[in-house]
Here is the input.
Amino acid sequence: MIIEEISIHNKKYPEQLKHIYNPPMKLYAIGNTDILKQKGIAIVGSRKATEYGKKVALKISKELSEKGFHIISGLARGIDSYAHIGNINSKSTGKTIAVLGSSIDTIYPKENRNLAIKIIKTGGCILSEYPIGSKIQPKNFPERNRIISGLSKGVIIIEASEKSGALITADFALEQGREVFAVPGNILNENSKGTNTLIKQGAKVVTSFQDILEEIH
Here is the structure.
């Protein structure tokens, strides 16, 4: 597969990403780069997703894809994976973008290599700011979250503990002037503490894809 390098000075570079704090100077991409400039919404959440979280991610991703949104997530285990899968299963005009915390030649986690291939085959895109051959570092994953939110018109958080990386994405979204949405959860579940706190702090409650359409057109 061909790896495309997109400089911040290149016409293909997403305009909305240029205006975030600390934009990546170069992007490395495989797949359909045309969708990087189109209408996208991010869906992120816990790597340790519950069955409830997985079902919600699949459902909302599929429905938003059918409304023409591209789904942006991080190819991580859990909610991210199901957000990508919901899009792939929709077979709709909306595609999916996976923003990696590793270099594009090193898909992480390894078990999501097949999912990455499906994303490309169905018209989606795999994206990274890290040069080919870069070693995976823990700091990469919170860093790349600014790109997930930066490419989107809004971020939906589905399940997040109090110290979840998904909350970092929500912080970036607020900083960048993006909408923040959160799915309410079981008050007895650790995975709901982050999302329920976001709602108390003013995040828009999501109980169906219609809640997104009311805010983002």
